[in-house]
Design brief:
This is riboflavin kinase. The protein has 440 residues and is of the alpha+beta class. The chain is 59% helix and 14% strand.
Amino acid sequence: MRNNIKIMGRSWNFKSHSLAGALAIMLAALLWSIDGLFIRPRFYILPAEMVVFWEHFLGFIVLSPFIFLNWHKIKLISKKSWGALIWISFFGGALGTIMITKAFFAAMDGQASFATVIILQKLQPIFALFLASILLKERLPRFFYLWAVIAVTASYFIALGQSGLDISTINWQHSAALFAFIAAFAFGSSTVFGKRVANHLDYKIVAALRFGLTAILVLGLAIFTGTIGQTSQLSLIYWELLGLIVLTSGAGAMFIYYFGLRRVSASAATILELFWPFSALILDYVFNHNYLNYIQVIAFIVLLVAFYKIYLLDKLKSVTFKAKVISGSQRGRVLGYPTANLDKTDLDIPHGVYIVKLQLAGQDYLGLMHFGFKDVFDEPVSLEILIKDFVGDIYGQEMSVTVIKKIREVEKFSGAEELQVAIKRDLSILADFSKGKNML
């Protein structure tokens, strides 16, 4: 099957699409490692709730134009997507950020080592992989999970190569250990719910809404604890550091992260986030001249190989679902391409146009599936299928649909004529696929 497909004069390359996503996740992790090593520890004498509030409020100001520009879509967000947004705002934005900030502050006070915080933070992929399998039904090749285990193990050796610490020696009574453990669950679960909402919304909208909702949640907590009143303690240097966080590890990193999360699976994303200890090791060498021991060098190489293998193996197995045909607006008939509208619009796959195989009344067909907003007509999310070589009345009937391959994103066209041109090209791709692969 071809990796390059020509659509609307542009080339859609599936491998470059996922590579861009993988690199974006790793870049965000690099920014987070810079934050943890050089920026956030500077705030350790201040209340974590206050720091996290201003970090998110200022980040929201930077990202807020995307809310105004996309308000027509935000009004159409489903309850399921709102639930995912609230989850990532509370757990990933509020609870997780406060807990990891408190963990670093506790380490600064000598209550625990930074290695303790890092080793417990590496539990995050375990939570994320489990939840991705349960909630998103992500099914990846078995060798993906083998390399995921190898990557997590390598990250432990990288983080602990010079500390002599292992997980059995962690004192769970120390607050830093508890804070880091809670942060691991919060961030791991937020990767999964973030993937759910990033599938259905533009990454710019997701980042803006997350920062806005988190700012509201943390403001309430800061008012309740009375820490918001300590804002007067923020001198000019702290405001400058907050501005640096917003542009790098805060709003900047999350903007990049959600761009990447839409393009890779949640399972791959949580492993690629392990670039954090990898990059922290490099930064520690460059700025602090701390050399690697032989264990860290080996783990360093193994993790690099694991990242590459994870990228190659990030191929989700086919999604199959059942849905009933319902009445629609009949616009397909007007355009000359009648479609079957389905009653299921909460699939945990990215919006887009897909080649699908379907079973209807005991017969197999190929088709084109559109899943997403109808921007041309300013309508909410719909799921509809143009069935190849089919004519008939199927209202009320149930069909089984297997998603085979995504061929392009949902695009905003200037009018019906441009949409018709796109459909013709999509059908040409479907015809080529049918000739080359027949029925799968």
